[in-house]
Task: inverse folding
């Protein structure tokens, strides 16, 4: 029996070899009826694409790897789940599939890189949760492994392609809204100093207050993320405040609870516009996660083709207003 | 230069070939310092495992595919995200990685099966959201593609391995709790008849009421999932009720809102113990998703080895009590 090739399939289906290739690699770009005809030919002839042969031909595995974040309190972690949904949705039409891995810190993630690169033929990585002194990007860059990051290279030069959301712009927007609705004693509930994202969110609040000629000193408090920790941290500060910008929805939920329990009214704005914020009526800064994920896939194409120099894209967040910030 | 093989790497690292293989396939089972030594040898010798060759040797790609569900209201969809976290966590120590795909219905999912099977060497699929007349399982079974399902084969014979959570037991448990705390007019807010999961959740409520000699007639209402739809659907029913069991947390949140707005007190229990339920104090039935996901990976090993006949495992849910069901 003669060997079944893409050419044999193309001949039987009455299409070009490129069309057969498209059906195999990017079926989304092929019209439904053409796709059905090619698949009929593939099945009738018993054609089975050889992944290894295809990779040798194209130099591509069409697999990209991304870390799935630990399932924390189900509130802030859900942001990266939404990014993952966006990435998977955008990858398929571009001819890629997403492979998952887990890791608890940089060291474990780099060990996983090694394991994945020796065991699977991966085209690229999409890294999330970039941070100061991020050992992952230099490790990949030194070995010539293609990658893009969702998150800028905090404190490191812009030598790779990345997509990020302007965190400082988000809290600045929230602070301006509170100023515009008559609040003057606007506090900030954030994370301990040192995290790029957390510091940027604090800066957006501080610089907006300063630009309005208002003092921020003594109006901010830092604590590990969480509802309970947020409620405890803000309790003493509440009598001095009429509004509060928070670095996360979890912290904001804690602040809302503390305000309710103390009977001290306080407008509260969270960050990330999670499902919980929608349900409890918490105003929150929203990141365009679907757009950012699609952009990561776009940038990857340039990285893999070496067709473009590294590019960086910063998205603007938006502010979603609800009951927690009465006008 | 002589070809670098697993044997060469093993010799340099002073370990067995099996240990090198473990570092490549299941690094988690190798001690940290041994792993470091093997990786040093791999890097020094420039060894690069050939995925294609490895597959031909083992007949395994060590890749399994699972659908990522659309991001709906961020409440009920989060259950399958939690399942995905559990699956990814359990896959790695077993030597597997998880690849994602999306699909909006059975037809599109089967088209995606075809595309994935011709373009990637996949070992198996893990299917979620099984339902009556599920075309996906028979399609895979006819082609001899290994799979397990999270969800039983509603109305079809148990010819494949599956893991499920006993939905009826969950609502029965909720109903018994309400009976035990003195409620007598216990309603049910569920989905339109026809979905296996939804019908089972309704049955658990109905059979528990019947066993207690209480009438359920006229105390249930069915509506598409959602907070707003739940609130609207239950408004007319509330005056007849002192408690309500719901098929989802979204419906339960709608019921809580309707009860608050009508001023009619009503104990409410949701289903799935989502992050939102924890935050707003909604009692809810909790599925052991991490355990179910790990069990799917265990069953897959048997399916891939053809070492065991199909197995089926039904997990018991548990009831998490919060403010929405005052004692």
Result:
């Amino acid at each position: 029996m003669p060997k079944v090739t893409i050419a044999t399939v193309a001949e039987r289906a009455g299409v070009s070899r490129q069309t057969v290739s498209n059906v195999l690699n990017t079926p989304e770009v092929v019209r439904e009826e053409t796709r059905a005809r090619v698949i009929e030919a593939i099945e009738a002839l018993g054609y089975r694409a050889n992944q290894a042969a295809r990779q040798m031909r194209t130099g591509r595995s069409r697999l990209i790897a991304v870390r799935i974040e630990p399932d924390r309190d189900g509130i802030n972690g859900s942001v990266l789940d939404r990014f993952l949904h966006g990435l998977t949705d955008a990858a398929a039409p571009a001819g890629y599939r997403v492979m998952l891995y887990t890791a608890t810190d940089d060291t474990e993630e780099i060990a996983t890189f090694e394991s994945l690169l020796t065991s699977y033929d991966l085209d690229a990585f999409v890294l999330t949760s970039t941070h100061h002194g991020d050992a992952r990007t230099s490790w990949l860059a030194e070995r010539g492994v293609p990658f893009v990051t969702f998150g800028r290279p905090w404190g490191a030069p812009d030598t790779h392609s990345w997509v990020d959301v302007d965190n400082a712009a988000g809290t600045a927007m929230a602070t301006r809204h509170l100023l515009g609705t008559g609040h003057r004693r606007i506090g900030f509930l954030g994370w301990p100093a040192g995290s790029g994202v957390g510091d940027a969110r604090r800066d957006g609040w501080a610089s907006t207050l300063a630009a309005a000629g208002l003092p921020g000193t003594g109006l901010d408090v830092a604590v590990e993320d969480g509802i309970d920790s947020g409620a405890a941290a803000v309790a003493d500060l509440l009598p001095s405040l009429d509004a509060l910008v928070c670095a996360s929805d979890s912290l904001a939920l804690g602040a809302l609870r503390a305000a309710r329990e103390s009977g001290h009214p306080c407008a509260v704005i969270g960050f990330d516009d999670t499902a919980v914020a929608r349900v409890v009526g918490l105003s929150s800064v929203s990141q365009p996660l679907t757009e950012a994920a699609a952009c990561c896939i776009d940038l990857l194409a340039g990285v893999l083709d070496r067709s473009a120099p590294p590019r960086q894209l910063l998205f603007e967040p938006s502010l979603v207003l609800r009951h927690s910030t009465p006008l």
